Amino acid sequence: MSERLDVRRTSKLFIGGAFPRSESGRTLEVRGHDGAFLANAARASRKDVRDAVVAARAAQPRWAGATAYNRGQVLYRVAEMLEGRAAQFTAELAAATGDAEAAAAEVAAAVDRWVWYAGWTDKFAQVAGSVNPVAGPFFNLSAPEPVGVVGIVAPRASALLGLTSVVAPALVAGNAVVVVASEDRPLPAVTLAEVLATSDVPGGVVNVLTGQRDELAPVLAGHLDVDGLDLTGMAGATVEELAALEVLAAEDVTRVRPAPAAEPDWTAEPRGVDRITAWCDVKTVWHPKGT
Amino acid sequence: MGSTLALPGVDVDPRDAARSTAALRRLLDALPGVDAWGVEKRAATLATRSIKRESKAAAIDLAIRTMDLTTLEGADTPRRVRSLCARAVRPDPADPRVPSVAAVCVYPDLVATAVEAVVGTDVLVASVATAFPSGRASLAVKLADTSEAVAAGADEIDMVIDRGAFLAGDVAKVFDEIVAVKEACGDAHLKVILETGELATYDHVRRASWLALVAGADTIKTSTGKTATNATLPVAVVMLEAVRDFAALTGEARGVKVAGGVRTTKEAVRYLVVVNEIAGPAWLTPDRFRIGASSLLTDLLLQRQKLTTGVYGSADRVPID
């Protein structure tokens, strides 16, 4: 009897709920911490960015229109599904970093983080909203609303926990996301896309692109249909590179969350809801008081 | 006529067919059947053509110039039509180099509003008529519908054929209706809507195309946009072949209009490729080819902006009706 052949995975993009190859047909070799070949990941092009933004734009109103409670249920389900595939994520992270123990801890923390943000969907409005005192017979209420489509450059080192920590909060308020995964460690992001695809997250709400950060980030920044830009994954880039991205984003006043000087420690509990409110606009309404 | 070159096996002169029902039937019966697989394959192959850069820029402008910007909703108001006309004349207020569209297409009662809004420009006013979209009314009603639209100033009339009569084999009735409406049109350009989504087969599409051309249609149009199946590339191929062969037999150049379901630049460019390949480059003008659409214009402008500025645009930055 012959030996069974390996069934190797061809890693793909995640756009509009489907898993296409890059429109360009290009791929990127992914290697582990020891230089061993792991897989060929799709190398997204600017047209893939465009397609992802179109998908995100189309999906966003329905996601924002779902009840906050329902969004919480869906994000909790992501945690459930991630938990079920913990072994796969651990193996992928370990292959990328070489530290199996840390990998297991990172997966557990990522599951917890999805649960943490799932709990905020129907609560953050109480924290971020307010009843404002006004000099007149009116109720004056402020409430946070999603900005729309958020482009995210995901952290480079923390391929799952870091990714979760930037994507989940953007989803809480009802934004749709286009995320450029870690260039060096894209495989956990692709597996997370498979988790999202089976978690009742509507197709197009999260779109995952793998490829070269410095090729994709400017396209995302310059796109006029992207409302928010998270540059967390640009940590360590030069001032000139960051300035160029902000100039592109400024063309249509895209809200930018600037890159930190170094990649943050993702294992720490988030200190507040600032990553949620970063992708919200405040809507204030005046309502006459009854007698 | 020694015109067997264009249509092998057809020995009836189309101009004779216009004179007697028997000759018309002979012509329609003599038309060869459509090789469905072949025509779909041909359309699919042409759809893979890659159009880049300068050619794409030219195609986008051509698609805008050949567009009938359309609003055919029960909820149309005079104000909406005026805003549609403003878009038609100046599709992108930020860029005067964007050409005007060919025409606006509205319901007959809004023709006067549209004519007023486009006066002094090159944009024409087209009106659907003849109990659009079903065509289920008496001939007298259809003719009154047409005359009113023409009297209100419509430059073009989009009529629907009686699909029920055509499918029941009553080609004479369909023929007579087209002839009568053509007469009611006077100088107005007549587009005959075959509603190919309801004709079931390519053979029917080919016969209906010839029937309309013989009856005097200036343009044959695929669909109303009101049924489940709208314009498709293979149907456009069949209709363009009919127009090409009709021109070869009679020397008269007629037009084709595709309508319904064309929403993206990519689809529009595919139709332009098909027009170029089947009928020839002479058909790439607003006189001989039209695209009826409403949301397509937004995508064309976004793609045009991408080509001129280098960044992908947002639908928020393109005018709406």
Largest interface comes to: A-B, 12 and 8 residues
Give the H and E element order of chain A. Answer: EEHHHHHEEEHEHEHEHEHE
H/E order of the elements of chain B?
A: HHHHEHEHEHEHHEHEHEHEH
Low-confidence stretches of chain A: none
Query: CATH architecture of chain B, please?
Result: Alpha-Beta Barrel
Radius of gyration of chain B: 19 Å
Largest sheet of chain A: 5 strands, parallel
Number of domain units of chain B: 1
Helix content class of chain B: 40-55%
Q: How far do the termini of chain B sit from each other?
A: 51 Å
Task: Explain what this protein looks like in three dimensions.
The complex is a heterodimer of chains A (about 290) and B (about 325). Chain A contains ten helices and ten strands. Chain A has helices at about 45-65, 70-85, 85-95, 100-120, 125-130, 160-170, 185-195, 215-220, 240-250, 275; strands at about 25-30, 35-40, 130, 140-145, 150-155, 175-180, 205-210, 230, 255, 280-290. In chain A, strands 7-6-5-8-9 form a five-stranded parallel sheet, with helices on both faces. In chain A, strands 3-4-10 form a three-stranded antiparallel sheet. Chain A is globular. The mean pLDDT of chain A is about 95. Mean pLDDT of chain B is about 95; it is low at about 1-5. Chain B contains 13 helices and eight strands. In chain B, helix 3 (about 35-45) crosses helix 11 (about 235-250). Chain B is about 45% helix and about 10% strand. Chain B has an eight-stranded parallel β-barrel, surrounded by eight helices. Classes of the chains: A alpha/beta (about 290), B alpha/beta (about 325). The interface between A and B is small, with 12 and 8 residues.
Quick recap:
Chain A has helices at residues 46-65, 68-84, 86-97, 100-120, 124-128, 161-172, 187-197, 213-222, 239-250, 274-277; strands spanning 27-31, 37-42, 130-131, 138-146, 149-153, 176-180, 206-209, 228-230, 255-257, 280-288. Chain A has 291 residues and is of the alpha/beta class. The longest helix of chain A has 21 residues, at 100-120.
